[in-house]
Specification:
The protein is built from seven helices and no strands. By secondary structure, the chain is mainly α. Helix 3 runs antiparallel to helix 7 (131-157). The N and C termini lie far apart (48 Å). 42% of the residues are buried.
Length: 158
């Protein structure tokens, strides 16, 4: 299915497609993840409890918006829907000790690695959960794996 920028007139598609980043012709998930680094960096200005709340809100919004967008498109997890990657990067960045470029780049690389590889149980969850939660769950699990690795690196370097 070929998508046009006119699709972004629908507010659900606009958000689900990562504010347009999901319409990139190559690697839309990577584009959405790169876009997410800006709000991830900005959230470091907040105390940790507020960062956690912001990520929880992003997850809740993502479940709703991605589910609506997928239903309107008639495709469960269209490749252009990248808000799940945005929420995944935000969740992964919670484990970063600072907004330094090293930590954000490492969060990005680790998240993309697990999001693409989909080790157990990520792939199984991706195929067994429907709706907006199904679109989000694999990226949130990838974020958990990436955050765990980020924490190990942080411990080893300090």
């Amino acid at each position: 299915m070929r998508l046009r920028f006119g699709l972004l007139r629908d507010p659900f598609h606009f958000v689900a497609f990562g504010f347009g980043s999901g319409l990139t012709p190559y690697a839309p998930g990577t584009a959405g993840s790169l876009l997410a680094l800006l709000p991830a960096w900005a959230l470091f200005g907040l105390p940790m409890p507020w960062r956690v709340v912001a990520v929880a809100v992003a997850i809740a919004v993502g479940i709703w918006v991605c589910g609506v967008s997928a239903r309107r498109l008639g495709v469960h997890d269209h490749g252009g829907i990248v808000f799940d990657e945005i929420a995944g990067i935000l969740a992964t960045a919670l484990a970063a000790p600072s907004p330094a470029p090293f930590w954000l780049a490492l969060a990005f690389v680790l998240f993309r690695f697990f999001d693409i590889w989909k080790p157990w149980p990520i792939r199984q969850l991706d195929h067994s959960v429907g709706g907006g939660a199904g679109i989000m769950i694999d990226d949130l699990m990838a974020a958990v794996y990436a955050a765990a690795c980020l924490t190990v690196v942080r411990i080893l370097l300090t």
